[in-house]
Amino acid sequence: MRFKGKTAVITGGSSGIGRASVELFLREGATVVMGDIDEAEGIAMMSALGDAFLFQKCDVTQESEIKALMDYAAEKTGGIDILFNNAGAGGPRDAIDEISGDDWDFAMALLLKSVAMGIRHAAPHLKQRGGGAIVNTASICAFQAGYGPIAYSTAKAGVLHLTKVAAAELAQYKIRVNAICPGFIQTNIFAASLGANKEEARQINSVLGQAAANAQPVARPGVPSDIAEAAAYLASEAAGFVTGTHLLVDGGMLVGTPGSW
Ligand code: NAD
């Protein structure tokens, strides 16, 4: 019960990493307020997950909806102790010599500005509680080309620097800010960015999961709970001396496999 008496706001919790995090934080005693663009799934989760779970529709590309989510969470539960800025999608897949300015702006709004505005509008509530923890989802794409499209990867690299500067600025209020960099995790994100149906999604995840497992020292596909556990650690008191940094949770993908070439 690491989060007994705490309120955690989690974005993008209708699916994948966010969903696993909602379930883990609830098991650990938190009241969870989840914001997601997928209203139907959020409402379905309200009836499945019980009184400690609240949902508010939130499109994280819209600052006003992010502010409304934070204010709703604080009003309904008495305050905010933890923010997990996790919502995201694959974004435009065009290369740098093809991408439009509008697509670039959308990727930055969805993957980078959303994190900044999440921190911006949660921070006053965390300050009122005398401190807390913020966790942002970045990616291995922030470190190395070849793992994601350019706009996505650039935004995720921005999340890492935003994490450091926000950590430096908010430490005086006892607010810690860290990032997680997942490697390949079997969720909906790849299939959704390719417009795949459910069966195609299963096949895509199976093929990509096997390819990732072959390329990692930890030879199995990553699963959403791998990242939820990392988020829970960074949000917990066990990480009380950890701020302004990132945790790679990639099965060793970035260190590579000995003898692979
Ligand atoms: P997912 O598609 O399973 O979940 C993403 C969630 O974000 C969904 O619930 C979706 O409805 C929500 N969402 C999308 N656009 C939104 C918007 N505008 N406003 C609010 N909610 C929105 O994908 P996932 O893999 O669980 O992704 C979670 C995070 O992890 C993302 O930030 C993603 O970039 C990051 N990530 C994933 C992987 C991976 O391999 N799956 C790797 C690195 C980073």
Automatic annotation (TrEMBL):
Entry's family note: Belongs to the short-chain dehydrogenases/reductases (SDR) family.
One Pfam entry name: adh_short_C2
UniProt xrefs under NCBIfam families: PRK07231.1
Organism: Parasphingorhabdus flavimaris
Protein name: SDR family oxidoreductase
The keyword Signal is assigned to this record: no
InterPro entries (UniProt xref): NAD(P)-bd_dom_sf, SDR_fam
Iron-sulfur found in the keyword field: no
Keywords for this protein: Lipid metabolism, NAD, Oxidoreductase, Steroid metabolism
